[in-house]
Amino acid sequence: MERPADFKRMMLSLPHSSGDYAAVAFTAELAALLGIDLLGIFAMDENLARLASLPCVRELRPSGGWHPINAAEIEQDSSRAIAEARHRFAEAVKARRSDARFDVAKASIADIIGAQSTPQDIVVVVQPRNPAERVTHQFMQLLDAAFAAPSATLLIPTRVIRRRGPVVAIATHEDDTSIRTALQLAERSHERLLLLVPPGADEVPLDRLASAARVPIDWRRLPEGDIDASRLDILLAPTGERLLVLSRGTDAGVSTQLAFERAIPVLVTEPTGQMTSSPAQASV
Amino acid sequence: MPPVHTSEALKSPADLQAIANGPAPSTLAPLPVAKLYRRADLSKLTFQTTDDLKPVDTIVGQTRAVDAIDLGTRMHQPGFNLFVIGSDAARMHGAVQSLLKSRMPEKSELSDWVYVNNFVDPRKPVAIKMPGGRALPFRDSMRELIDDLKTALPAVFQSEDYQARRGAVDQAFQSKQGAAFSALHEKAAAKSIAIVRTPMGFALAPLQDGKIVPPDEFGAWPETKRQEVHESIQILEKELEQIVRQIPRLEKERRDEIRRLNRDTAQLAIGQSIDEIRSRFADIPKVIEHLEAVRADLIQNVMLFVVKPDAEEEQAPTPEWQAGNPLQRYEVNVIVCHAAAGCETPVIEEVHPTLGNLLGNIEYMSQHGVLMTNFRLIKAGALHRANGGYLLLDVRNLLMEPFSWTALKRTLRQGEIRIEDVGHFLGLTSTVSIEPDPIPLDVKIILFGDRLLYYILAAIDPEVRRHFKILADFDDDLPRSADSEAIHARLIASIVRGTNLKPVDHEGVALVIEHAARLADHSAKLTLLVERLGDLLMEADCWATAAKRRVIGRGDVQRALDEQVQRASRVRDRTQESILQDIALIDTTGSKIGQVNGLSVLELGGFRFGRPTRITCRVRPGGGKVVDIEREVELGGPLHSKGVLILSGFLAGRYALDAPMSLFASLVFEQSYGGVEGDSASSAELYALLSALAELPLRQDLAVTGSVNQHGDVQSIGGVNEKIEGFFDICRARGLTGSQGVLIPHSNVQHLMLRQDVLDACATGQFAVFPVRSIDEGIALLTGRPAGQRENDGQFDDGSVNRLVEDRLNGYATIRRSFGQQTSSATARENP
């Protein structure tokens, strides 16, 4: 299988809850579609053990109330969580053809992404099913790190509403890298490509693109003005897309909002771009 | 030439004279050859070969049985099942099947039966009766329904509409929870406190510069600041706890809401498909009832059809007892199905009537190492298949199978087919089983068996007559006449055609008919054991083929008969060999006192042959007892012992009427090392006894058969042909003298169908068969002296056998009296 030139690996921060592993399977499917490796990282933050030394910190277990934090227990529980994650990861990727690897990192996920991600990576952020997890320090850090990293970011919602339908690319300018990535994804998944191009974009390069593509390409102009989530929502309502590809030029809050509210995976490309706002401020 | 004999005590000159003169001419004449064999009379039929004959049904001459079967098939009340008895199982089966077919309507309205899942109690599958021809369409409709739903339901559940509504539900609940957590997060962030995910839960920890404060640094903080953080955390903990506690309730509400949404969504897709099937089966209330149960279950468990993108909630669990795919619960297990526009009444023959084959069974499949079952694994039995018709069973096979007989009776008593799991009863399987609905029984059972089995069963099991009220007794033979011989000839033609044999010519047919009489053991009857005649004809066909003949002739039939005998006669030949080599002592010439040639028949593997046996008798004064040595050593059967005891009755009734019997006699079958049963030798034993008493020698060139009663009448016995032929074979081997022959009961003359070589010898006077009515006739022939009548003076004729016997008995009485007086005197002297 021909591998897209830009990406070589997906870096996935493995969730702690079993209910979130359906998203892992979906990620593996996308990795296989792109023909790239999948690296599942289970972050075992050593800082957690230090919480035991903080006199005012206790642990609330959903199954059994408040408990004092014990460093040894944290160690044991982490080991169990790793074993569980390893098993679930293996289950989630076994049906896919991607080269998948499971890794345990003794650091915070933000540090790992910051240290390891490259422009050839896609950092995957899975929206936790449990609302409590979405406001945890770790998830906030993950989201920040993903958007701050030089890699692309793939946002996977808790529930993916559909698995068929066109791939949509939202281009902020005519040479937006999201167009090429979206086309590759559309070709590999044998889906239509819908391009949302800036209001003043020239039609000629689109025609040229369409003549070389192996799938049908439609395009629409974006409305004048700033792109926000609600406007895109209205624009995409009849589309029934399976995946959105945006460039970093789009507001990060818009990306997360589109992903988590429309329940559609969103791939944010153009790794060299700059984040325009903190994604943690978006509604998640 | 006068016979050579050995005499132990010849007393009178008259005795010596009689012996010297040889046997006096007896008034008893040998039977003419015409009486020894009855030729077939086919004058009523003009044919060259069996091809010219019109075949007949193989159930000729069975009026009694046919009437019984006719009645049995007409009566539909419970208990009027048939018990068909006779000697030839194959003939009975064929005859009954052809009778049933001829009496059945061309088309019958039969019911189909299916088993479906019981959604209330899956351990009790529901049986549904349907008009014939509807079961398969119903099954197919249900399969179609499920196949359609497999496509339709996922599509419905993946539709934008559903996903939007589902998303809205999720979103609403997520928002509720998310809002609470977001508020908490904001409140915590404002106080520089983070919510931290621990491996097993959550914690609240102080933050500084976006990072959790390390313990050392926290320890270095001023006490007031630490206290402040502590208090903030405590407040936030309470809020966190409250929010977390609400999560299960909110989650449950969400699940309920989604379930409602799923039900509403499924209702439309499922309802439409179910309604379509309902309209097709609206005339069957139980199907409608089942469809409603299916509808409710489908709606309840719609997620079974939806390939879920994630292993989320609402997955309907498969009940533990159920095996296989959970969607199989909607299938239809067709137990019995018939054609739609009426069909032939079923006539089912179960040759291996195990409990499972009879009543149906419940199969199991292994799932995760445990044996599981469900309604789909219910298998029909012969009773299901025969319902509405007839079930044919061989009673011997039925009785040989454990539990089958009892289960059949229970089924007949209850009037319903209840599938029983014998493994469960016996504790052989300890897994969960099912109890399918019983199915009403509407079947006529026809049992086949031999007579003995029926009589024994009827005697020991009162339920036989309760459940099998119609007895159809197949005759083994039919009276022989010109008409019946003609019918028999056509029966032979039927067999020949039915088995694709060469045609049989006129003489060949005649010999088969004559052999049929021999098989019937009666010259005036013809056997109806078609199987044996068929075997004979097939062998004859083989010999005709070997001789390159296109038609089976008499010679081929005779060859087949001879070969049959030859194959089975090894034991007979060895027996005769031992006689001819004087290992088994049998005289065929001369005469001897107290010794006679008796005749017995042996049957081994269906082959019967006769053989002579020497019977001897010794007498002396005694207490009036005739001792049967066979009985003393427990080699004699009860009938044999009875025959011997009758001899005492004969002696006591005929002789020494004024004195107690003072005889001690011993009788024995010489060189008999096996058991002796039957009373056919009792006349021979009496001759030996009379000879011993009268001290008159008996002719050894004659053999004797026949039983005797207390009045001295000679009575009929069995196997007369084989007995005569057995003695003839020995005599011929030693050289026929012209004086040799056999004494048979007069009543057995009608049974004679002797071999051709015996007939030839009799025709030329080389051998003779004497019909004897009484002991007096027989003893006169054997001794050459008249038996003697009791005259007016109360005495038998002087010199007659009876006179000599009575004189001897009186002599014994005198001796006994004298001995008694001597003993009394001696006792008196000793005890004055």
Structure characterization notes:
- The complex is a heterodimer of chains A (284) and B (832).
- Chain A is α/β, with parallel strands linked by helices and 284 residues long.
- Helices cover 37% and strands 21% of the residues of chain A.
- Chain A contains ten helices and twelve strands.
- Chain A has helices at residues 21-34, 47-50, 71-93, 109-116, 131-134, 137-148, 177-188, 204-212, 229-236, 252-262, and strands at residues 9-13, 37-43, 58-61, 65-68, 100-105, 121-126, 152-156, 167-170, 193-197, 217-221, 243-247, 266-269.
- In chain A, the strands form two sheets. In chain A, strands 5-2-1-6-7-12-11-8-9-10 form a ten-stranded mixed sheet, sandwiched between helices.
- In chain A, helix 1 (21-34) crosses helix 3 (71-93) and helix 4 (109-116) packs parallel to helix 6.
- Chain A starts with 8 loop residues before the first strand and ends in a 15-residue tail after the last strand.
- Chain B has 832 residues and is an alpha/beta fold.
- In chain B, 47% of the residues lie in helices and 16% in strands.
- Chain B contains 28 helices and 31 strands.
- In chain B, the strands form ten sheets. In chain B, strands 24-25-23-22-27-30-31 form a seven-stranded mixed sheet, sandwiched between helices. Chain B has a five-stranded parallel sheet with strand order 9-14-17-2-18. Chain B has a three-stranded mixed sheet with strand order 1-21-26.
- Chain B is elongated, with a radius of gyration of 47 Å.
- Mean pLDDT of chain B is 86; it is low at 1-25 and 309-321.
- The interface between A and B is large, with 51 and 49 residues.
